[in-house]
Amino acid sequence: MEIANIVDKCAGVVKEVTIGATKDEGGTRGKVVTIGGANSIPFLDFDGSPGHKPAIAMDVYDVPPEEWPEPLLKHYADVIDNPANWAKKCAEYGADLICLKLDGIHPDKGNKSAEETVSTVKSILEAVDIPLVIWGCENDERDNEIMPKVSEAAKGEKCLLGGATQENYKTITAVCLADGHNLITQAPVDINIGKQINILVTDLGFPNDRIVMFQTTGALGYGIEYCYSIHERGRMAALSGDNQMATPVICDVGHEAWRAKEAKASDEEAPQWGSFAERGIMWEAITATTLMQSGVDIIRMNHPEAVSIVKKHIENLT
Amino acid sequence: MITLAERINGQFLDVKKAIKERNPSVIHDLAKKQTEAGATYLDINVGTAAADQEDAMKWLVESTQEAVSTPIAIDSQKLSVIKAGLEVIKNDVMINSAQGDPDVLDTYMKLAKEHNAALICLTMNKEGIPQNVDTRIEIAAEIAGKAMEHDVDMDKIYIDPILFSIPVDQKQPAYMLEVFNQIKLISDPSPHITVGLSNLAQGTQEKSLICRTFLAMAIAAGMDTALMDVLDTELMDTAICAEMLLNKQIYSDSFLKAARP
Predict the structure, then answer these.
(1) Containing domain of residue A41, as a range?
(2) How far apart are CA A262 and CA A187, in angstroms?
(3) What dotted CATH number matches B2-196+222-227?
(4) Could B254 and A234 be called an inter-chain contact, meaning their C-beta atoms sit closer than 8 Å?
(5) How far, in Å, CA of B112 to CA of B40, rounded?
(6) Residues B123-172: tens digit of each pLDDT
(7) B258/chain A closest Cα distance in angstroms
């Protein structure tokens, strides 16, 4: 009996986005990271090309994070107030990208100046040769003041800058366009707004092959299913030809997983939950590997062991 | 939605005159305008304008291809005219159309296969156009069967159940919705479903309103292609909105703008 050919060809392709620029390309990076390119559902090369492997971006903060539990903090205790050394450590842990999160410019978390922030960015660019994601503090006023300076300081490096929201997208889009960076478009677990913000930034003339979408991530037990189904629906739309959804996706796993009570509760507080030393790592790794199946292209992570588990998992699946 | 733009047709006076005088600028203009309006195919029909229909078809196809590279639907009831058009075609092409008799289908399926062309097949045969749902479905099934027999990809087959104008038979639009629903069930994957939308409003006032209202109803019932006035922006917007309401496009506040060409 003849076996029917059930290969399902997709009409759409997720755009390829390259982050980082080498010396020849006008930057100073030792390597660049290309994401996207999927023409089939994640990790299935049966129907078409699943595109580039997901990349791991490890977080570096410009101010020491306040509530990191011990099993995570201990890996960074010696570099927690030195972003450049912190970034070096992440590179050693196997990060494909550094995600510099500028929480410190927020009025409530340090209100750092533009000069100080620019010098942090420069110090990281010097300390490591992998590409950078640079993310504001989500206070519109401060972001609009600082991000243009940061963008200018990193001009030519083809960073990924975030984030453009429906309420505040013009400044960040304009500076990314002017300085040649890629742009994160951001939506609050809302696929309609996710699409709308992509349309808004492309209307300003921003090329859609330099956009990476972010739907505010939910960790395991904290809304991961909403996040998963939005990613999945967006990816299916992209594969069926919806050009506005055909951009790679970034998710924020580390931050979300490590603020879950399951990651933070000590052995004394929750003896029935298993080892405190391992729980958070598993929480982060499971959140990451679950979201990978929904079609994500950059995973922000924190713990070196979780990173190593997820990287191994990616290798096994590709 | 797959649209066949209807304006390059010898039944329109400007096109008739252009064919007669072999004046390509009228054709260039229509080809560009309809392409900009979002036409998937430019339908080309010589109408009754020319004594030598084969030659007129070649000229229309060539003139259109001088202006745009949009796929063309060669529209004629005569095989010789369709073949004449196929001789000069450069890009993707659709044959519009074949009747549903087995011997006719054999000829057209072979032709479609040979030219890697899409093919519109009418649910009518030598006995005429059926007035009921069942016979239309029988002919549609015959068409799908012939496509499989000739190894023509079902994605290339467009079944046209023939839409009458309202003054001819007002029961037909409702029948038609039932026909669309049933055609979807005759094979998996199912063939495309198409109609000549403007036929519906022939001889009526409020043509645009009638067409766009039926278009929304028809899309909901499974029709995915139409020969229509792509220059009617309200009609085109209706198609976009209907597809969004059927969850074929993710909603955003700018969904209309995003889906327009």
Answers:
(1) 17-317
(2) 26
(3) 3.20.20.20
(4) no
(5) 18
(6) 999 999 998 899 999 999 999 999 999 999 999 999 999 999 999 999 99
(7) 7
